[in-house]
Each structure stands twice: as structure tokens, then as C-alpha cells.
Amino acid sequence: MKPIDPRLLRRATAARGYLLVSGLIGLLQIACILVFSWAVAQCVAGALMQHLTWNESLHLVALAAAAQAIRALLAYAWNVSSEFAAAKVKAQLREQMAERFAALGPAWLASRSAPQLTTVYGRGLDALDGYFSKFLPQLVLTVISVPVFLFVLWREDLPSAITVGVTLPLIPIFMILIGWYTQRVQNSEWEASRTLSGHFVDVVTGLSTLKVFGRQWHQRDVISTVTDHYRQRTMRVLGISFMSGFVLELASTLAVALVAVSIGTRLIGGEIDLYTGLFVLLIAPEAFSPLRLVGSHYHAATEGISAADDALSVLDEPDSRPGAHPAAPIRSARSDATTASAESPSSLRPADLRLEDICVSRGDVRLQTVTLRAEAGRLTVISGPSGAGKSSIFAALLGFVPATGQVIWQGERIDLERDAPLRPVIAWSGQRTDLFPGTIASNVALGLNSGDHVDADLLRRCLRLAGAGRLDLDQVIDPVGGGISGGQAQRVCIARAYYRAFSHDCRIVLLDEPTSAVDEQTEREMIAGMRTMAQDGRVVVVISHRPRVIAAADAQVSIAAQPTGRAGGAVASASSASRDERDGVVA
What we know:
This protein is an alpha/beta fold.
């Protein structure tokens, strides 16, 4: 990442305003430095040469003190503005990353390391504090101050200006040489940090399995080894940072010493007056100080720069899913059956859902082509062997994977390849149970907008429909999902989908293997809940291998196992049958 990445300025609007504020504060600080140096040089030279009265000397001392006080206040304002900007930029980047995670979908997240993404989202972006509070302000001050100080030195003493102008480039050269090596070591340390975080999270997540097979002590040794490597890399980074600071300090000290020796010899020879010599001696260190500090702060900010680069890479990730391009929003339900009939040859009712030639692509592999119809008020069950592409149908409707084909919903024909997905009108529960720290009630009501009222009676009803009516709404779930069994966690997620369907009036309910981890009695309760949701006028589509769920279906879609082929190869279609032998699904 560059010292100032244009992508950061484009993504984080707070950074732009902060650069302007930093430039203004930098100009005021430069003015304070010049006023202080002028006042001190005038006071000392006038007192020694007896050109000034006592009152005039006191006025100059007061002016110098005021300049220093204002400079201190400006430094405080700089620190406050930098901390505020860092907090705003981190909040903006985290908000954009969260939106990007949701936009890229589960398929993209599954292909990435979740612990590493979490490290970037959390600790990585926190490292931007050093970037905004130290490095970036100093970089802005350097860009402004160095030309100003060189111009002042040129006006006051040309030989000193030439000396400073010749020695000044040595500091950037040292910065570049040291920075190349430091950046490589820092990147290695950042990679080690992400690896350690990911490995530790994986071990904690699978600790129960490791204990079953007696491998927990081996992982203790592995974590100890990885941690020791991370410690060594961190100490190397700190050592290089200290050495680089020493090199820059030495270079600037020698350069200022050359200016001081030149002024001293010329003062003895009478070639320069005392005021000019003192003024130049006070200005010369200030010309080197910004460059020296920007080099030191760069090493302290490299972790934040690396993390910001990773975050910006996520934000710039190309979107290949459906709905990536602007499309007309899904219109409200139509009651005009004539319009729906004109757009669908199967004379769909407005509340029915029809999929036509839906084909999901995963990389360069294309799954089966599926055509089906799901009627409102009827329970539709999709069955078939694992890997046939059942869950991919749900992913296509939700906009999580690239897909082709068309969906007819409420009289609207939606092209999955270019139009927005149906996600706003869908309540769904996948195979994976995602619970969060808090109570069962907060997990069921997850996703409500701020200010929305949580209906406790509706929460209990949704739990009953999901076969979890005996669970307590106030029961606490710990950060790793403990406190309830796997089957109970699955039913809490289903209750969450039901609650969304009721609270947001979602007319489509999708459930993926909802009864895979329950007993027969609970399964009967859950089937009754699914039928209740369907009888309420919703389209309820369930993926299941369980014979009891399949037998309870009003319409069954059977997807046969077909060999997958490359894009453009042969594709298959779904066959279907209903309980009363009606043509509920066509292929």
C-alpha cells in the first residue's frame, strides 16, 4: 500500500477532511516556529549587542512564549483530530466491509479464511490509529514545512540553505532503503499474526473433537511453536524500527552540525551577523525534523497500512453474482391474474413461485438446470441425493451464487443473471446453525431494524412452529453457541426464519434440511409448523432427505443425481410429483 492510497481516500470520506485539517494546522505550526525563532534570535542578538531595551526584550520573550503555547495547543488539536479521524475511518471501513461481506454472499466467505477476515476487521483496522495519529499528520507537515523552511533559509543565508538542500535528500534515501526491508519484515509479521489468529480460532472451535481423539496436547505444542515464531518476528520489527530511528537521528544530527560549523566559522570571520546565525540555527533542525519523524512513524504504522490494504482488497473484490448491476426493484404483489397468466404459460396465480431453467454456476462448473413450480398454501419438498444441486437453488434465489434462468413471482418475470435477487421477500434457514451470544429471544429476533418492537408472543409462537416451544426465551447462549443442543440450535434458526416471515411479511419461506437433527416426535411438530406457514398463504419450499417430510409434502420435486459438466456442457432438469398427482411442478 502507498503512504496515501487513493482507494483509502475514496472509501473513507473522513480521511479527506482530515487531510485538509492537517494541512491547516501544519501551516499554523510552521508560522509559530518561524515567529518563535525570529523572536528568540532578535532577543538574544539585541541583548548581546545592546540594541534592545529591557521592555523590548520582555515583549520578544512574551511573543516567543505565546508562539510556543499556541504551537502546543495546535499539537493537541492535531492529536484530537487524528484520533477522531481514525475512529471515523475505521467505522466507515468496517461498515463497508460488513456490507461487502453480505453482498459477496456465503459462497465467497466460504472460500476465505474466516479467522483471517476477522483479524483484518478487528485488530487489523485498529492498527490504523498509529497511521492516522502519527504517520499521516507528520507526512502532511513534511510536505508543507520542508519547502517553506528551505525558502526561509535561502532568503536569510544562502550557504546554509545550500548545505541543508544537499544533505536533506540523505534522509529520504535512508528511509527508502530501510523502509523496503522493514515493509518486508512487517508484512511477514502481519501474515504470522493472521495465521496465529486463524489457527487459534480453529483449535478452539474443534477442541471437543481434539479431546475425543486425544490430540489436544499436540495442538498445545503447535500453538506454542507458532506463538514463538510470531514473537521472534515482532522483536525483529521492533529492532529494525529502533535502528532506523537511530540512523535517521544520526543523519539529521550530522547535517545540522555541518550548518552549525559553517555558521560558527563565518561568525568569527564577520561574514554573517549574530541574528542571522541564531535564526538559521533555530530553523535548520526544524527542516530535518519532519522528514526524520515521518520515517520513524512510518515503521510504527506499517501494520495499519498492511491491514488497510487487506481491507481495501476486500472492498474492491469484483462481484460476479446476480444483482451486481443496478436493476429495477421488485414491485409489490399484483392481484391481476390476467397479467400473471400472460407472462406465464402455466397460468400461475400471483402468489405462486415458478423457476424456469435455473442453472447455478460454481466456478467453471455448471450444475443441473431446474424448472419447478411452488404454489402458495402448499408444502413443496425438494429431494434428491447429496450434491445434486438442491441447496444451490436456494442460493440462486437469495443471490448468493451466479445463476442463469428466470423466476416468475407475483406476475413479475425476474432474470437471475441481471436482475436483483428475491432476498427481500424471502425468509430462510440454511443447514448451518449460526447463533450469536445472547438470549434465545435475541437470536430469534435477529435482523430487526433499530426501533422495531420485539413481540414476545410472536417469538413463542415461532418457537412452537419450529418444534422448540419448550425452550425459554431468556435462556442464554454463550459465544460458541453452547447452552443448547445442536438440534435445538437448528430449530432456533428455523424460528428466526418464521419470525422474519411474520414481522417482514415475507411470502416465501425456504428451509434447508430443517429436521436433520431431531427425533420423530419433534419432526412431526416441525412438519405441522411448516404446513401452518403454508396454510397462511405463503410459498413454503423445503429441502429434505427425511421420508416423513417427503411423505407430508403437497408437491414433491425430485432432482436426480447427474454428472456435472463444464460450462456449456449437458445439463439435466428436475422431475416432480404431487400428493394428489397434480402437475405441481414441470420440468
